[in-house]
Amino acid sequence: MVFNKLGKDLESIMRKLRGLPKIDKDAINMVIQSLQRSLLESDVKVELVFQMTENIKKEAMNTDLKRARRKDFIIKLVHDELVKTIGGTSAPIRIKPGKSNVILLVGIQGSGKTTSIGKLARFYKNKGYKVAAVTTDTWRPGAYEQLVQLTDQIGVKCYGNPNEKNAIKLAVRETKKAINDEHDIIIVDTAGRHKEEKELMREMEKIESSLKPNEVILVIDGTLGQQAYSQAEEFAKSTNIGSIIVTKLDGTAKGGGALSACAATNQSIRFIGVGEKLEDFEEFNPTTFVGSLLGVPDIEGLVKKVQEAEIDADPDLVKRMMKGKFTLDDLYYQLKSIKKVGKMKNILAMMGGGNIPEALTDDAEKNLEKWEVVLNSLTQAEKEDPKIIKKTRKRRIAIGSGTDYTTINRMLDQYNQMKKFMKKALQMQKKGKGMPGIPGMGKAGAQFMNKLGKDNKF
Ligand SMILES: Nc1nc2c(ncn2[C@@H]2O[C@H](COP(=O)(O)OP(=O)(O)OP(=O)(O)O)[C@@H](O)[C@H]2O)c(=O)[nH]1
Ligand SMILES: [Mg+2]
């Protein structure tokens, strides 16, 4: 497993979290401190560690949640922040069919560019593409021979000229040849360089501007520590980095440098190198990867459950409903944030059942767009007390929002229906008549309301 130590540390933090009797401020602080320690020990850039953990802490402290899902919620927060740091989930590199796609690899000396060209060439060749490699490295002795030796193993043609000393000319000429030979994918190697080597950095910029590659990949050595961030940042300033390959994750790489490099470039890891051989190469999936770091194999399942719990446990809405306070804004934002109208129906069903208002029929979602436009033309007073919207106001709103009376009337109508519905439900509540109308829902509904009655804050 790559990122071995970080993985072990994170897994143990998650295990500790699951074992806690309750999730309160102290528990959150414990998680934050342990996270900071393990990320720092893995060489993630200090500022980045604090920024990441601060985000997690803020969200954890400020979110109301059903008790049962709090632990999962924290795990999800850690997961989301890690995925965000490594550039989020993005679509694979797009290869345009019927065209010669040029991929340019850049990075500091010895990061594993040339080896990765061999690996990438093998990867795409196995997918059925006609692949070629081009070397533009005029600095490293034997660079051309190294690439020829690698590409020979997989029957991929290598273009280059060990006698040419001008890297830009070499890049243009050899890539052109590869295009003329109708290759689908042409992977271009460059000499290694450090951000301090201004001349070489300029050379790289010129290679990029002359080739106009479809994708520039930054190759990062996974064993690189704190300096990874500033190196990657400089590469991102000079070229248009589109994705990242992290190499040497097979050894004892702490990996923190690679995480920092992603944050510095704002791009995501697409492949990882896990050995010297051409087959030691894997496509990278941030979600699966972070899931395995945290020791949660089914992280997607967990995330989904938390999202559902977040929707169910929306005590603010129900509390407002219970107090009979429900404005047009509430109706709109709840429908919008819940997205699935079905969820709102469930909440209302638990409150009172009976005939669900027309606003929540299946095509209600379609109304949302229109309502948004209308709502933008309302004053705050109108939103809070729609009764005051009479004829003159309606005219102003219709003109302001570019809608017609029918849309406005219909929205108000549906709001009134909803309000009436809630009033009835509340009366039933008060009379202790429980939750009529929905068979089998009575008890669950009562429990739900009880739970909401308690203070759910951390
Ligand atoms: N263990 C391991 N070694 C790797 C990996 N990728 C590359 N290497 C080794 O790292 C060393 C440098 O690799 P190169 O591919 O030559 O690196 P480069 O970036 O082209 O180097 P320059 O052209 O000098 O800048 C070689 O010994 C490779 O075998 C990997 O994923 N795992
Ligand atoms: Mg090389």
Largest sheet: 8 strands, mixed
User: According to CATH, what is the class of the largest domain?
Assistant: Alpha Beta
How would you state the average pLDDT, rounded?
82
Computed Rg: 29 Å
Structural class given helices, strands, pairing? Answer: alpha/beta
Per DSSP, the total helix count is 20
Query: For the largest beta sheet, what order do the strands appear in spatially?
Result: 3-2-4-1-5-6-7-8
Could you say what the CATH topology of the largest domain is called? Rossmann fold
Provide the CATH architecture of the largest domain.
3-Layer(aba) Sandwich
Q: What is the fourth-level CATH superfamily of the largest domain?
A: P-loop containing nucleotide triphosphate hydrolases
How many domains would you count in the coordinates? Answer: 3
Distance between the termini: 36 Å
Number of strands: 8
Small molecules in complex: guanosine-5'-triphosphate, magnesium ion
Uncertain runs are 434-458
Short description:
This protein has 458 residues and is an alpha/beta fold. It is built from 20 helices and 8 strands. It starts with a helix and ends in a 5-residue tail after the last helix.
Report on the structure:
This protein is α/β, with parallel strands linked by helices. It folds into 3 domains: 96 residues, SRP54, nucleotide-binding domain (Four Helix Bundle (Hemerythrin (Met), subunit A), Up-down Bundle); 184 residues, P-loop containing nucleotide triphosphate hydrolases (Rossmann fold); 140 residues, 434 Repressor (Amino-terminal Domain), CATH 1.10.260.30. The protein is built from 20 helices and 8 strands. An 8-stranded mixed β-sheet has the order 3-2-4-1-5-6-7-8, with helices on both faces. Helix 1 packs antiparallel against helix 2 and helix 14 crosses helix 16. The longest helix is centred in the C-terminal third of the chain and has 26 residues. Bound molecules: guanosine-5'-triphosphate (GTP) and magnesium ion. The site of magnesium ion (MG) has 7 residues, from helix 5.
